[in-house]
Amino acid sequence: MNSQADFSCTLCKGRIKVPVITIGPHAVSRCDSCGLGFLDSHVHETGEDTVYDEGFYTSQNMIKVPSEGIRECLPKVRFVRKYRPTGRLLDVGCGLGYFLAAAQQEGFTVCGMEESGWATEYIRKEFGFPVWPAPLETSALEGGSLDVCTMWQVIEHVPDPLAALRKIQDLLKAGGVLIMETRNHRGFDAKMLLERWGGWALPYHLWHFDPASLRLLSETAGFRVLRLKVHKSDYVKKNLRKIPILGVLRNPVASLFAGSNITVVAEKAKQGGG
Fold first, then answer.
1. Fewer CB within 10 A of the terminal residue: the chain, N end or C end?
2. β-sheet bridge partners, residue 258
3. Using N-to-C axis directions, what is the helix angle for 66-80 and 98-105, rounded to 10°?
4. Which regions in the chain score pLDDT beneath 50?
């Protein structure tokens, strides 16, 4: 980003940034006004590029037996179906296509968008789904053609999140739904694990959200937020599991602490302002 003297938040135009964490050559700061975190590349400029090739997916343990990957994605599809039971679905940053396969299995007509040429080729060979190249803003998809757009752990990678969400606004039908999941950099897990927290993933993650900044991003792009879900703490759950007497209480106790993920469900305004 910029030095403190000329800093201007990309989301709220706030003028003060606050250091959050430094890990190796990379630093994260956040806007003091809206809480949006960002990779502060001007603090530690390395000149390196992030490459989403086979090595990246292997290092993140993302490559799975397809049936296993599909099974793991079914809960997300069923979450989507609470808001749109069927229709045309675009998964932005579709990775290796397991979510798309699960969504098709549950009745959606699916297509994907992916930056990684390696992942795109994997999807075409394994599943045969149509996959459009990123960036989203230059997509040739027809406006008003989608019922659902999903972004699972993707918005933090996008160079311009606000421009991306405005493009999704154009692609969705009136009343269409956007569902985004991302990391919560101000959750209990991040506070306890500090630099060991997996949500930093520097320099791959350009942006770091909390519930307030994710809501603000969605509303600034013109969406109406239907639900903002703060996931329970995996850190608390994992540690309570080690204590036999308290292990049975791990889920209700963990739900009292904000975990590593947040999900927003947001709707494009219906025609006539409904």
1. C
2. 232
3. 60
4. 1, 43-47, 273-274
Instruction: Name the CA dihedral angle for 136, 198, 266, 254, rounded to a multiple of 10 degrees.
Output: 170
User: In 3-state terms, what secondary structure has residue 264?
Assistant: strand
Omega before residue 161 within 30° of 0, cis: no
pLDDT in tens, 160-189: 999 999 999 999 999 999 999 999 999 999
Q: Report the C-alpha gap between 64 and 51 in whole angstroms.
A: 20
What is the widest separation between alpha-carbon atoms in the chain? 57
Contact 143, 170 (CB under 8 A): yes
Concatenated DSSP letters of 181-203: EEEBTTSHHHHHHGGG-TT--TT
pTM of the model: 0.89
The number of angstroms, rounded, from the C-alpha of 14 to the middle of its chain's C-alpha atoms is 23
Q: Cα angle vertex 233, ends 82, 267, to 5°?
A: 30
Cα 38 to chain centroid, rounded: 14
Helix %, strand %, coil % of the chain (to 5)? 35, 25, 40
pLDDT value of position 246 = 64
Per-residue HEC secondary structure of 131-166 comes to: EEECCHHHCCCCCCCEEEEEEECCHHHCCCHHHHHH
Burial of 99 (0-12, 13-18, 19+ CB in 10 A): buried
At residue 165, the pLDDT reads: 97
In angstroms, the first-to-last Cα distance of the chain is 38
